[in-house]
Amino acid sequence: MSADPSAPADAGADADEFARLFRSGTPIVVAETHEEAKVVALAERLARHANRPYYTWSVADGLVQRSFTYAQTARAYEPPGGYVDNHAPADRAPPTRPRSIANTEPLAEALRQVEREADDAVVVLLDPDPFLADPVVARRLREIAMAQAQTRCTLVLVGHALPLPATLARHTGRFSPRRPDATALRRMIDIESQLAMRESGARVEAASDTVDHLVAHLAGLAEDDARRLIRAAIRDDRRIDARDLPRVLAAKRDALGSLVVDVELPQAGLEQVGGMPHLKSWLARRRAALVNAGAGAVDVPRGVLLTGVQGAGKSLAARAIAGAWRLPLVRLEFTALYDKWQGETERHLREALEAAETLAPCVLWIDEIEKALARGDDRTDGGVSRRLLGAFLTWMSERRSRVFLVATSNDLTAMPPELLRKGRFDEIFFVDLPDAAARREIAAVHLARRGHAPAAFDLDAIARASEGCSGAEIEQAIVGAGFDAAHDGRPLDSPRVLAELARSRPLSVVMAEAVAALRAWAEGRTVRA
Prior knowledge:
Layout: H1 11-23, E1 28-32, H2 36-49, E2 54-58, E3 62-65, E4 99-100, H3 107-117, E5 122-126, H4 135-146, H5 148-151, E6 154-159, E7 172-174, H6 182-200, E8 205-206, H7 208-218, H8 223-237, E9 239-240, H9 245-256, E10 262-264, H10 277-284, H11 287-291, E11 303-308, H12 314-325, E12 329-331, H13 344-358, E13 362-366, H14 370-373, H15 378-381, H16 384-398, E14 403-409, H17 417-420, E15 427-431, H18 436-449, H19 459-465, H20 471-488, H21 494-503, H22 507-510, H23 512-522, E16 527-528
Parallel strand pairs: 1-6, 1-7, 2-5, 5-6, 8-9, 11-14, 11-15, 12-13, 13-14, 15-16
Antiparallel strand pairs: 2-3, 3-4, 10-12
Helix pairs in contact: 3-4, 6-8, 7-9, 13-16, 18-19, 18-20, 19-21, 20-21
């Protein structure tokens, strides 16, 4: 039997959890979600299976009895058995049509009507949040809840954010629809591919690794959003390819609303990073555990801390990791979190980390982390830095999401030791000045990036002349030589690059003592990248 394309991905699990709240006699079920249609469908099917009256309320339509039966002789509805599950047949119910109840658009009046007539009913309130602060509404909700033992009325509140008064807390239960897991997402892709093939007669083309990446990017999205994006990817050109991934990332960004992080999808991978063979090999052995949603790994790689000489490629490596793994790069700027109001800075940090987890799997990049979390004096900032550090350490220890943290630092000596211990980061890598082979590779990368054929240049001579230079300094030498060549109306060549290198003084010369001290500190304390 083919799968029902309209069936929820996790209908059985959601229905079981929903039914548990009903069976336990919870008076008020709160569903804070964007998936209104899914919750409404679950509530309606559950009410029908239990042969209970079913109402909905919205500020536009007022109170409506959806299960009203005009035929008085209609047989009582007999459900096919049990609560809703993923394989339940279509509901068999007596003929009904909605009965609108006049003058119930105000929520207080609708609740008054519920008290009068809705014994044993399931009443779904849609977007009631603007009215929950009304003391009359709060009191009527409480009275309905306290009378639940006699009336058996269940209220289901559905909305994006539902700030209930504290007096109702003991009467409520929370329900959140499950997000589809990797297995459910793959089933949805199969179903949509089959439907598209039936319509067009053409088979949907998709490489297995591309499907893996699509599933990874869809993780964390609501079921309706995931289904819509899968449908758009397939029916756009009857194929699933890398061009569909940015669309999924954009949908995730839109779902977050106001972002406190920057999000991008880098295109360049680790092939654009010269040198760092140990780091590249280390990353290659951990990629599958993070990227493949169905890999079943018990442990997920947590992240790396990159320290080293300024301009040696730490930031480039952070971007390249995301590009190589084809994951979103989420950049967190700690300076943007600070707020003058008490507690707001810590709240902004929590929102940023929640945003990263929503975008998972992803690479979370924190540049120059020592400037945000270095050991400070409570007298200078009122303890904000210490509270930020505590909140960040707690997140690092407790997180289970597939967020790979890449932090970069120019000076670890100012960092608190609790941030550097094993378990916070998987490894601490030292990015040193490139050796001759890496300098040759870096020069070739930057020449090719600007449309020049690296084979036309004396890369060995450039590598020798750039001894002591960082990757950024080699790039700037090529940029400067390009400006000179364009001014003279001549093509860029090796002599111009060599001349530019001879004129410049690298940081390892200008700040020789500081660079030597940094390299000496890292010896034996870090792993060479």
